[in-house]
Design goal:
The complex is a heterodimer. By secondary structure, chain A is an alpha/beta fold. Chain A is 41% helix and 20% strand. In chain A, the strands form three sheets. Chain A has a seven-stranded mixed β-sheet, sandwiched between helices. Chain A has a five-stranded mixed β-sheet with strand order 9-11-10-13-14, with helices on both faces. In chain A, helix 10 crosses helix 13. Chain B is an alpha/beta fold. Chain B has a single domain, classed as Pyruvate-ferredoxin Oxidoreductase, domain 3 (3-Layer(aba) Sandwich). In chain B, strands 2-3-1-4-5-6 form a six-stranded mixed β-sheet, sandwiched between helices. The radius of gyration of chain B is 15 Å and the shape is globular. The chains are: A alpha/beta, B alpha/beta. Chains A and B meet through strand 1, helix 8, strand 8, helix 10 and helix 13 of A and helix 1 and strand 2 of B.
Chain lengths: 350, 180
């Protein structure tokens, strides 16, 4: 059955249905409804809900719960996620699974509370210190956000590496129909590494501290090896043809808005393709490369001044021109704005 | 068919409730829907608007820059949104607060309804938005007014359920106003 839900609330409910038994958070717009929903539902579901005194505490509580082997999640918005970066780096170093949600808002600094996509670098290129990248998925509808959160719990346990769901303010606030995932189909894995009490077995240790450079290098090599396997989680959506005048690339809310512009242009007989990365790291490199080779030019749009753009430029062959249009600071490009931009690129290309 | 509606007014006029009710009812009626509220430091008396898409196909952009219909609850919203209306669109406005004669060359239907006056006559000023919603649903033909009535018990919390009959009446009154 499909129900109408807010993006934030659907993500919260999906987490509970995936067996998330600990949630820690601190309110921040535009994701406060998520923590609000959890405060009501977690006790009902027999889980732990705790509102900490800051995001720094939140992420360390997440570390503790993850080390104890339970399914744990937190959510925040851009400034709050910045505060969590140290803890996220520790989660990576200690190889702890956790699901993190960032409902992005305008920055830098306190910025504002309107939708943005300017935390792409932070999420996909590291964010905290050390040599790592976060598994990052970007939903573009409430329904996709719910199933993504649900699946994230299995993925984070599979790799013992945190998963970030990178949404934006619009997705947090929008209400759409969603078929919620089934409770109980996803089960926490057996974690023989977790700190569950060492009675009758050798003690487990969870740490990210390696004083000996050789030991730390070995640990890093082990992490790098692990990251290679994460390529299995690459996801994207494409609607392309063999002779495109232009291929548009966007993720999240912007991809949806662009779809309107693309439909309109196709109605005018234009050959326009659309490519939407769903996993931002690992990035769908080979798929984007082969799609772009079927197009005369590539167009990227983001609610930032060109972050994913850097990945697209790195991947698309040099002879194909990559054009960009971005809005920032909480401004969402309108369908017409993108249509006009694309139209002018197409006319110039003739 | 894709209906792209913007509802705009002051905070406290029930703008968001109208949009949500319409989205719930659309889903219940078997349509694809999206409801996108403006958000910010909202307060009673501040400006508020929401965008609702009701369609036979999956909704791509929840953002609307050229609505097929407009529900305008106050003067500033009229100035902001009226120029964006699509050709042959519907413009419904609150004639209790907008006293000037509203004309639009682009639209097929421009109708002002004194919703505040009508709601006061019913003895509950809070019903103004439901009168407007009834008028809109009836005029746009996107679904029967009964579809709206069906979802009200789900949308309103139980403590307001004693007011449901009055809300049904307000929806019917709105529908009658534009049909009659």
């Amino acid at each position: 059955m499909r129900v109408l839900m807010k993006g934030t609330e659907a993500m919260a409910e999906a987490a509970i249905r995936a067996g998330c038994s600990a949630y820690f958070g601190y309110p921040i717009t535009p994701q406060t409804e998520l923590i609000h929903y959890m405060s009501r539902r977690m006790p009902e579901a027999g889980g732990v809900f705790l509102q900490a005194e800051s995001e720094v505490s939140v992420i360390n509580m997440v570390y503790g719960a993850a080390a104890a082997g339970v399914r744990v999640m937190t959510s925040s918005s851009s400034p709050g996620v910045s505060l969590m970066q140290e803890g996220i780096s520790y989660l990576v170093g200690a190889e702890l699974p956790a699901v993190l949600i960032n409902v992005m808002r305008g920055g830098p600094g306190l910025g504002n509370i309107q939708p943005s996509q300017s935390d792409y670098f932070q999420s996909t290129k590291g964010g905290g210190h050390g040599d790592y990248k976060l598994i990052t998925f970007a939903p573009s509808s409430v329904s996709e956000a719910a199933s993504m959160v649900y699946d994230a719990f299995d993925i984070t346990e599979k790799y013992r590496h945190p998963v970030m769901i990178l949404a934006d303010g619009a997705l947090g606030q929008i209400m759409e129909p969603v078929s919620l995932p089934e409770q109980g189909a996803s089960k926490p894995s057996v974690k023989n590494w977790a700190l569950t009490g060492a009675k009758g077995r050798p003690a487990n240790k969870i740490f990210s501290f390696y004083l000996d450079p050789k030991g730390l290098e070995e640990h890093n090599l082990h992490l790098q090896e692990k990251f290679k396997n994460i390529d299995d989680e690459i996801k994207y959506e494409e609607d392309i043809s063999d002779d495109m005048e232009i291929l548009v690339v966007a993720y999240g809310t912007v991809a949806r808005i662009l779809k309107n512009a693309v439909q309109k242009l196709r109605g005018e007989g234009r050959k326009v393709g659309i490519f939407r990365p769903i996993s931002l790291w690992p990035f769908p490199e080979s798929a984007l490369k082969s799609a772009s080779m079927k197009a005369k030019q590539v167009f990227v749009s983001e609610m930032s001044y060109g972050q994913m753009l850097e990945d697209v430029r790195r991947i698309v062959p040099d002879e194909i021109e990559v054009k960009f249009y971005g809005r920032a600071g909480g401004v969402v490009p309108s369908p017409n704005e993108l249509y006009i931009k694309l139209k002018s690129l197409l006319e110039r290309g003739v | 068919m894709t209906e792209e509606l913007i509802i705009a007014g002051f905070g406290g006029q029930g703008v968001m409730t109208m949009g949500q009710v319409l989205a719930y009812a659309g889903l219940n009626f078997g349509k694809e829907v999206s409801y996108l509220p403006s958000y910010g430091p909202e307060q009673r008396g501040g400006t508020a608007n929401c965008m609702v898409v009701v369609s036979d196909e999956a909704v791509s952009s929840p953002y609307i820059d050229e609505p097929t219909s407009l529900i305008i609850m106050n003067q500033p919203s009229l100035e902001k949104f009226a120029p964006t209306l699509q050709e042959n669109g519907i413009l419904l406005y609150n004639a209790s607060l907008i006293k000037e004669k509203v004309t639009s060359e682009k639209t097929s239907k421009v109708i002002g309804i004194e919703i505040n006056h009508l709601a006061n006559q019913m003895g509950k000023p809070q019903l103004a938005n439901m009168i407007m919603l009834g008028a809109y649903v009836s005029l746009s033909n996107i679904m029967p007014v009964d579809s709206i009535k069906e979802v009200l018990p789900k949308v309103f919390s139980k403590k307001y359920h004693h007011l449901l009959p009055l809300n049904y009446e307000a929806l019917d009154l709105g529908a009658k106003t534009v049909k009659g």
